[in-house]
Amino acid sequence: MSINDIPTVRVNCPNGCCGFKVAVGKSATCPICKRTWIPDIPFSKDWAFNERLQSIADAVYSNIWQVKQIQRNLGSLDKDRGIDVHLQLVSGLTFDIQEKFRRAEARHYWQFTVEYKNNPVTGEPGEFYKLAANYYFYAYVNKLENCFTDWFIVDLNSFKEAYNSGLLKEDELRENTLRSKASFLCFNWSEMSPFIFRESGWQTKVR
After folding, report:
1. What is d(CA 175, CA 116) in angstroms, rounded to the nearest whole number?
2. Cα 189 to Cα 109: distance, rounded to the nearest angstrom
3. Model pTM?
4. Disulfide-capable partner of 124 in 53, 116, 119, 165 (CB 3.0 to 4.6 Å)?
5. Burial letters for 2-23: b for 16+ Cβ neighbours within 10 Å, e otherwise?
6. Predicted confidence band at 75 (pLDDT cuts at 50, 70, 90)?
């Protein structure tokens, strides 16, 4: 993928100055009034971003486990239980995985984020209440959005046990006022090491 292949969306300045194109996931700065904001991303654009990276994630899974089959588009399992991927292994065992792909600028925060409330005003629960998968695959992509710079596989059972017992606490509860109404529990990666099953570069690290 070249820099020209990164998807764009046309936005209009909130001040009514003009319309122009901006890369999906990037902040927009009006060339006239210089106002900067984060535009809403159309669902189709965000879906395309995720879909492009699924094959790269599949390669990671196949490098860790002896995978026989990878299933996606799981319908109610995705909607109600937060399961994005069902892995069937050669051994006959199965694993369910939740995924999140983050754009390059999100790496600045260096946090594991979990949606807490989909809408804090109405109390609609987010993915925190649907962590039914075995693992959570959390990856950051490069600026060209054609590979991962860093990734982690979080063991959700040990993560939930630690949170439930009070051994782990979020570093902050953040409300996303720029793009949505959702709120997020944020955990610094420096505190997450006991719950990481695998991470990028794991083959070269002493375990």
Report:
1. 9
2. 10
3. 0.76
4. 119
5. eeeebbebebebeeeeeeeeee
6. confident
